[in-house]
Every structure is written in C-alpha cells, then in structure tokens.
Write a structure and sequence with these properties.
Number of helices of chain A: 13
Radius of gyration of chain B: 23 Å
Number of strands of chain B: 0
Largest interface: B-C, 84 and 93 residues
Number of strands of chain A: 12
Shape of chain A: globular
CATH topology of the domain at 65-222 and 253-272 in chain B: MetI-like fold
CATH superfamily of the domain at 65-222 and 253-272 in chain B: MetI-like
Shape of chain B: globular
Low-confidence stretches of chain A: none
Mean pLDDT of chain B: 85
Order of helices and strands of chain A: HEEHEHEHEEEHHHEHEEHHEHHEH
Structural class of chain A: alpha/beta
Largest sheet of chain A: 10 strands, mixed
Number of helices of chain B: 12
Distance between the termini of chain B: 37 Å
Order of helices and strands of chain B: HHHHHHHHHHHH
Strand content of chain A: 15-25%
CATH architecture of the domain at 65-222 and 253-272 in chain B: Orthogonal Bundle
Mean pLDDT of chain A: 88
Oligomer: heterotrimer
Chains: A alpha/beta (about 325), B mainly alpha (about 270), C mainly alpha (about 270)
Distance between the termini of chain A: 53 Å
Strand content of chain B: under 5%
Helix content of chain A: 40-55%
Radius of gyration of chain A: 21 Å
CATH class of the domain at 65-222 and 253-272 in chain B: Mainly Alpha
Helix content of chain B: over 70%
C-alpha cells in the first residue's frame, strides 16, 4: 500500500510536469473573466498571439499587495488596475515603463507621463440593478434612494479597502454629495447610514450574483450592467444616480522584472491595438482609443443627457487620498 | 545494540524534523520578526491590543467562536449521547449523515449557507410561504454563526460518541437504582463523565472557529473576524508587518485555548476521526 | 429494552432535524448543479451541461488537487509513519513535547502559516510559482493527523514485546520496522491516509494565499466561481467536489467502523 501510494504520486507528478511547459505564457494579475469581458479578451490573446494568459480574480488591492509581496521575485508579467492604482503601483516601485503602439492616441490625463501605466478603457460608476429581483419595488434613481428601508438587504458594494471599484464608489458618492478629496464627511456619513440597510460587501467581482438576483442592487460600472442586459439578456438596468457620479479609467502596466516580460509586452500591445480595443468597445466600455467605438455599441448606452452627470476624476488626488479614506472607512463604518 | 537503535530512531524521525523545522518553525520565527520590521517596530504588537479596530476584531472573533463552541457542544452533546445509547433502524445512516461534512472547506460551507439563507435560499422560500416575509440572513452575523456551527458539528459529534462509548454504564445504573431521575442522571453522572471529551472537543471547535477564513470570505459579511482582518491588512498594499503581528495574536490565542483545555482534560487533544 | 418514552422521540426528532440541517443544503446544491435553470428548479429540466462546462473551465484545478493530495499522502507516509514509530518506542516528556510541536500547524491558523511561508521562501521564484509550494503547506497541516493516527494504533499494541521477539529471532532494526511494525499499524495508516487525502483536497485557508494563477486548486476555483460565475456553475462545480470527496469520507467512516470492532485493542489513546 505504501509502495502503491508512492507510485501513484510519482505518476501524477510526471503527468503534470510536461503539461506545464509547452505553452507560451504571460501571467496577469486581475484579469477576471466576468469583469469587463476579460474572458473574451483573454481568448483573443490566446488565438491571435498564441500566449496563454490564465484568468485571475484578484481585485486591484489584492493585485498590488501581491506585487509588493513578490517584489524580489515577481510572479506576474502584467497587471490591470483601477485608475488611481496605477499611481500607487508606481510609487511602490513594482511596475516598469513600457509604451505600446498606439501610445500617442491616449489623451494626456489618462496615462503616466513616463510610460509606467496607461488607460485601456473607462467606465462610469452607477447602480447595476436586477429589476426582477427587486420584488416589485421601484428602481432606485439616486444614491439617497438606497438609504430607504424598502431596499433593506438588497444593496451591495465592493469592499473599499481592497477593490478599486469599492473605493471609487465612495469617491463617487462623496463628490456627488458635495464632498472633496480633503473632506470625506459626506461619504462616511452616507455609508454609515447605509449600514442600517444591511448591505452585502463582497471583495471580488460579483457580476453573477447580480444576474442571479442574489444582490439586486450593486455599485458597479455601466459596462458590466450593459453586458448583463444585452449579452446575457438578464433583467438588469443601469442607473446613473441623480446626484451625479464619476467616470473612471482602468489601466494596465508591465510588472517590473516579470518572468515572461517579452510576452507581457505583446499582451499590452494587443490590448491597445485596434482589435483589442474593439473587444472592449463591444463589451460596452469606452475604449481609450475612441476610434474603436462602433456606432452599434454606442447606441446601447444610456442617452448622453444622462451621462452629463458623470464627471472625470483627478487620478492623482484620488491616489493621494486613498490610504486615509480607507483607514477612516475601517474605523467609522465597519 | 542500543547505540545503533538510537541512530536508527534518529534517522527515522529526521525527515519529520527537517520538514517541520525548515518549513514551519523557521518561517514562523521569521514571521514574528517581520511583524516587528514595519515602520512602528515591535511596538506594533502592543498597538494591536490598544487599537480599537484590531482589538475589536479580536474580541468579536473570540465572542463568535465561544458562542459557536457552546452551541455546538450543546447540539452535539445531545445528538452524540442519543445516538451512542440507542439502537434503532436507521441509526447508522444518521451517524453517516451527521459526519459527512467533516472536511468541507469553509468556502463550500459559505456557499451552502447562501443556498439555505440567501436571497434565493430555501429558508427564504419557506418563510415567504409561511409568513409572507422573506427571511434572508446569510450575510449577517446569524448567517456566519450558522455556517460556523455547520462545520463544527461533525467533528464534535464524533468525539462525543467516542467518549460516550468509554463511559462505564454501571455508574448510571447505580444512580438509577438509587432512585435518581433521568435528568439527574444526565447532570450528575453523564456530563461529568464526558467532561474531558467535551473540553477537548470544545477546544478544537474554538480553535477551528478562530482560524476560519473561507466561510467569512464567501459570505462577504461586514463582521470583521480576525482572519479577514489579517487578509485585509495584507491586501492593503501588503501591510505585512501588521498582518504578521495579527497572525501572531491569532495563533497565540488559539494555541493557548488548546493548551488550557488539554491541561483541564488531562489527556491529549483528540485528532479527528 | 424498555419502552420508548417521550424523551426518546424528542431526541430522535432533534437528531433528525440536525441531520437535515447538515444534509439538505448539500442535496440542494447537488441538484442545483444539474438543473437547467436554478430559478426554475427541477421543473425546468435536468441537464449535465453545467457539469460539462465546469469540466471545461476548471479541469486543471481538479487534476492539480488530486495530484497534490496524492503527493501529500506520499510525503506524510514517508515522513510521518517512521516519526510515529519513534514516538511510540520512546514515550517520554521529550516525545510528548515533540507531539505537541507537530500539532502546532493545526492550531495556528492556515493564514498565518501561509504568510510565514511566503515571507520566508517567496523569494525563490521557481519554488514560489510551483505546486510544490502548496504541497509544503498541505504536508505541514496533514502530518499531525497521520502521526496521531499511527501513534494511536501503535500505543495499543505491545510494541516492546513484539520487537524484542523479532530481535531475539535475529531481525535487524530495518527488518523489524518493515516486517513487524508496519503490518501491525495498517489500520492506523489507512485511517491516517484517508484523513490526509480528504484534508488536502479540501484545504483552502493556506492555499488561497499560496496559489498563483497557474497553480489553482479545486477549493480556490470554487471560491472564484461562487463570486463571479452563475449559480448553476458554482453548484455544478460543488457537485464535482462532492463527488470527489464524499467517497473518501464514506471510506473513512467504514475504516473507523471496522477498527472499532476490535474491542480489546482500543483501550488506550484519546
């Protein structure tokens, strides 16, 4: 029995080892298949470049932490991060500059001047609502609506201490309720009040939970909501809150001293190429190279009049204020 | 002969010593040092006991684990004694069902809690049908508590059953023949007889609940149990020093509980199954 | 046998209720994994499509978990059985202290052990990114169970007499170990082996921190699927997990039952 076990283990090891080395690879931190349709993008990368990029469900905070922890010997080659995390990653010295083709098409405010990170697409934060799961209650139209007792147990938002979209939700609420990056009182007061409605606070992308109705109202981006509505044909709507919200870029960067740096660069080239950008556009994001946006996809967005309430943010200010706000959230809201 | 025996024994235990020393003892000591390597130095260990966020997390975890342990001991005690002492058709099946979830990971238990008490959960449907009001508590303290009790019951039932089998039935018979009522027999003979087993089972239950991570992670509750706080610190730009310091406290509390229970029980703590 | 009173039926009802609490969600989740649409339930039709999809998405995690569990078993056998033998041969304060020490990875939360491994060995990229990194964590966590299991059996048999008998017949120390001791602790090895494999397949706390996108195990995949995939996929994946682990758990129960029918032998040990 002893010997048989060892033999079985040896065979298992032998079976695993060759399989691992045949493929060209690049490791991405934060490429969740169900967020921003990364699933399709990763398949395209495999098909067009022959590079296998395994999917990864880390959020921005978990990715940055992993990059810092692995600084001496990085595991990842590229990373995808929420807007201000690009600046934080550069400060932490875990990314390296690389300017892919198409770099010049990116507007100035959406890329690091020295090439450390660049926007690939942006989205607008709002309410991702499963109308059927509301059980007959009216679709909320503003941040304030969510404080009403009728939505008890129905509201969710990603954790501001680790997910970029979590922190960005706090910022969006804050800006729209009159706060500034120096004064987060409106947001803290809002989230404290929101706790009475027993919100669900996941750490990672919860697209499927909205579709299933487990989380009827989620603070999330328009692209995830549109994908649910048009691609997955779920009974969902996107709502831009009446008080206003923010438009946020999502960025990518090359990891410093990654194991497969050459493949990493090819991946970054692809996400910025016409084909890569078109995939983002078809997934209802605003591609950073606006030329890739098709009229067909654009037609499916909410009318432009609604989008006037969405304002861009100062990434630098957002990055600077993050640590203090997260600590404040932990102490006062949790 | 004796010298070669000693040599022989050392060779046999050396692999375990090496594996354990290199991959557990050394890294743990290193972790404690890392705890003191942050900007605050070793003072961070003291800070944890005074900082309301961390202290609150530690206290709420201890409170939850204690509540779970007491509830589990009560439930498993009744069920374990009943099943050991009574034979009836289907008793083996009940034992099998009760101990089936023995090694389910916390994530799966969290998922099962959502199946029971989530928005589309069974309990919600039943309460809607019975009372017209959907009861959803998967994402609150109640859901977390339920999940913890769920994975604690199987192991505790096994331990209780094993201990009941070792009880001397003559003590109970003697008590009964002296006229003691069934409840008094339970209180004065059975429970004291089971005390060592209950203590050690309770200690394991407490230790497991303290260190449980997967369940809280899946349930996305706002209650910050200590393992979640550790994980959050780690993901807050790799605040490893604080994460390490918190881990030290978590390990210390757990290990102390087990040691205390061991000395009280007088025997070594039983491994499961 | 005295007549069954009210107390019996009350306790029986309670026991059945508790069993239902444990089993009903398992059954629900297994059924959800084969329904065409969770919201419609069984009436919407049954299908294996989700299971097939899970296989396509998560096949590697299943293979990896099985491989790690078997490797973990091999290592704990080679490392743990001899250690248990030495501990049984020389019962003393020292060996008791060693036993205490070996149990520590079970007492210390998996998160802490994983963090410790990462800060100490994370710098060796080849090691960090290989499945061996996860294996180390699993071995640390399961070793005490193997040692305890074998030790429990060894402490019930009269090891000293057996060994002296063999030695007087001319058997050397290695012959004694392989020819006399090992066959006698077969039941302990079997129980320990089942425990090790079951625990390794289900290990999450440590593996969550130790894994990389290329070394995902089944529980790690489950966590991902619960958060981001459709409920049917999460359920189907859970179904696959149950199919893997429930036979192991049943085997453990049967092995425990068969060793319990040796009443004279089970005198010592906690």
């Amino acid at each position: 029995m002893f010997k048989r076990a060892i033999l079985a283990a040896a065979m298992a090891v032998a079976a695993l080892v060759p399989a691992a080395h045949a493929q060209q690879r690049a490791i991405c931190y934060n490429c969740p298949p169900e967020w921003a349709d990364w699933g399709t993008e990763l398949k395209a990368i495999q098909a067009k470049l022959g590079i296998m990029v395994p999917e990864d469900n880390k959020n921005s905070g978990q990715s940055l932490a992993a990059l810092i922890a692995e600084k001496a010997n990085p595991v990842a080659d590229v990373t995808y991060l929420g807007g201000q995390f690009g600046i934080l990653a550069r400060n932490a010295d875990v990314i390296a500059p690389y300017k892919p083709e198409g770099w010049d098409d990116i507007p100035a405010g959406l890329k690091d001047p020295d090439g450390y990170w660049f926007t690939i697409h942006s989205g607008t934060l709002g309410l991702f609502v499963n109308t059927k799961a509301l059980g007959g209650k009216p679709v909320p139209k503003s941040w304030a609506d969510l404080l009403k007792p009728e939505y008890k147990g129905m509201v969710g938002y990603l954790d501001p201490t680790s997910a970029a979209v979590g922190y960005i939700g706090v910022v969006a609420v804050n800006q729209s309720l009159g706060g500034t990056f120096q004064n987060f009182d409106p947001a803290i007061r809002y989230f404290k009040d929101l706790q009475k409605n027993q919100p669900i606070v996941p750490k990672q992308t919860s697209y499927a939970r909205v579709l299933s109705g487990e989380i009827p109202i989620l603070f999330d981006y328009d692209f995830n909501a549109y994908r649910g509505k048009y691609a997955d044909k779920a009974p969902v709507e996107f709502v831009i809150p009446a008080e206003g919200t923010v438009v946020v870029p999502y960025v990518m960067a090359l990891v410093k001293n990654g194991p497969n740096a050459a493949n990493g660069k090819k991946v970054l080239d692809f996400v910025l190429s016409d084909e890569g950008q078109r995939i983002w556009a078809n997934a209802f994001m605003r591609p950073v190279r606006a030329s890739a946006m098709s009229a067909d996809a654009a037609a499916k967005f909410l009318p432009a009049a609604e989008y006037t309430r969405a304002k861009p943010v100062d990434l630098g200010a957002m990055a600077d204020a993050q640590k203090a706000l997260v600590e404040r959230y932990q102490r006062e809201v949790q | 002969m004796r010298r070669s025996d000693l040599f022989h024994d050392v060779v046999l235990i050396a692999p375990a010593a090496i594996v354990f020393g290199a991959f557990f003892l050394l890294p743990l000591v290193h972790l404690v040092m890392v705890g003191g390597s942050g900007p605050g130095g070793f003072a961070v260990y003291a800070r944890i006991l005074t900082d309301p966020l961390y202290l609150g997390s530690l206290i709420s975890t201890v409170a939850l684990s204690t509540a779970v342990t007491l509830a589990t001991l009560a439930i498993a005690g009744v069920v374990g004694v009943f099943l050991s002492r009574n034979r009836f058709p289907g008793d083996a099946l009940l034992v099998a069902l009760l101990t089936l979830p023995l090694a389910f990971p916390g994530v799966v238990v969290g998922f099962l809690v959502i199946m029971l008490a989530g928005r589309q959960g069974l309990i919600g449907d039943i309460s809607l049908w019975l009372f017209g009001d959907k009861l959803v508590f998967a994402y609150s303290m109640a859901g977390l508590f339920m999940g913890y009790v769920y994975f604690s019951i199987p192991r505790t039932v096994l331990t209780v059953m094993a201990a009941v089998e070792k009880l001397d039935p003559r003590l109970e018979e003697a008590a009964r023949s002296l006229g003691a009522k069934p409840w008094h027999v339970v209180r004065d003979v059975i429970i004291p007889g089971l005390k060592p087993a209950l203590l050690s089972a309770g200690a394991i239950c407490f230790a497991t609940a303290m260190g449980a991570f997967g369940t809280a992670f899946t349930l996305a509750t706002r209650i910050n149990v200590l393992p979640m706080t550790i994980y959050t610190e780690f993901t807050l730009q790799a605040n490893i020093a604080v994460a390490a310091a918190l881990s030290f406290f978590l390990g210390a509390v757990t290990w102390t509980a087990l040691a205390l229970a061991r000395t009280a029980a007088g025997t070594s703590v039983a491994a499961a199954g | 046998m005295t007549g069954r009173g009210l107390a019996f039926y009350l306790q029986l009802a309670f026991t059945i209720l508790v069993s239902a609490f444990l089993i009903v969600p398992v059954a629900l989740s297994m059924i959800a994994g084969v329904t065409a649409n969770y919201l419609e339930g069984v009436s919407g039709g049954l299908t294996l499509d989700w299971v097939v999809k899970v296989w396509g998405l998560y096949r590697e995690t299943i293979y990896l978990s099985m491989a790690i569990a078997l490797a973990c078993l091999a290592v704990t056998l080679v490392v743990g059985v001899p250690a248990a033998y030495v501990l049984a041969r020389r019962p003393s304060a020292v060996t008791r202290a060693i036993e205490e020490l070996l149990v520590m990875p079970v007492a210390i939360p998996g998160l802490a052990t994983a963090l410790a491994l990462i800060v100490t060995y994370g710098g060796f990229r080849g090691f960090r990114t290989s499945w061996l990194f996860i294996l180390v964590g699993h071995v640390l966590f399961t070793l005490p169970f193997m040692v305890r299991s074998v030790l429990a059996v060894l402490s019930t048999i009269d090891l000293k007499t057996l060994e002296e008998g063999a030695a007087s017949l001319g058997a050397g120390p290695w012959q004694r170990f392989f020819g006399v001791v090992l066959p006698n602790c077969r039941s302990g090895i079997l129980a320990g082996a089942l425990m090790v494999v079951t625990l390794s397949v289900g290990e999450f706390n440590m593996t969550w921190l130790l894994h990389t996108p290329l070394t995902k195990t089944l529980p790690v995949g489950l966590a991902d699927s619960y958060a981001s995939m459709r409920l049917e996929i999460g359920s189907a994946y859970t179904l696959v997990f149950f199919v893997m682990i429930i036979p192991l758990l049943i085997a453990m129960q049967l092995a425990g039952r068969s060793s319990a029918t040796r009443p004279a032998a089970r005198r010592g040990g906690a």
